[in-house]
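Q: Hi! First time doing this. I have a protein sequence and I read that you can turn it into a structure. Is that right? Here it is:
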Amino acid sequence: MSISPVRRRAAAALAVSAAAALVLSSCSSSSDGGGDSDSDGSATAPATGPSLPPPTSVTLPPEHAGFDYQISSPYQPPAGVQVVSRDHGAAPAAGMYNICYVNAFQAQSGAEKDWEPDLLLRDGGGKVVYDRNWNEALLDVRTDAKRQRIAQKVNGWIDECAAKGFNAVEPDNYDSYTRSDNLLTAADVEAFQTVIAAHAHEKMLAIGQKNTVELAGDRQKVGLDFAVAEECGEQDECGGYVDAFGDRVYVIEYTDKGLSKACKGWGDKLSIVRRDKNVLPQGKAGNVRKTC
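A: Yes, that's right. Below is the predicted 3D structure, encoded as structure tokens:
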């Protein structure tokens, strides 16, 4: 599967313990790779490896549920919504399954000074490597030492998510290696994602894979529980996520064409929403929200 050169994310979105493989049970049939679980969506993650804490339980998001993507600014979820994704700086939505957005693999635009200089990925000439679409500096996750240092900040955001009452976390820019001028590898980002996943599970949060269908097959090795997929209808990628995560795939499309394709192929299985590119709140000019 080729890698899409552009991943649309909200321009206004605000602003990782050892590598381990966590295999989580799920509520769905064996097609999602999980085992049996209680009907309320709870699943037990057995701790494996010498550095993990005792077993914890995380609650997985409901399958094929009404979904809204609010990472720019929160607003009252529309009728029928059960799952909401919001930025870690916001409060969770009352009565909903809440997913907490964190930008884990890149610095927010203009926030390079929030990171120690050697943690920003640099080319052979010492220049910082940027995601040119969003003017975000990539983080240097090539060594375990740097991964642990970067994790201190990202895990702090995850701690905030847990303290606020979120149920899960979605670390963005897992696919940063595809924009790194070949300086980062898939193995680098998977190693860092494993650190984040272990910490999220320690905090009893489920963790979602954000985009990067090419790595979905490694989801159990890394310790990922569900997927948040931007434009998988538009890019003909939804099937790859379903193969790895079953029906726990939460889809955001940014065009009517993408919404139509996603709904036609997966509307009876997946949670799908069409949003405007800047993920504007209800009531603001330019806001778009449609479902199948």
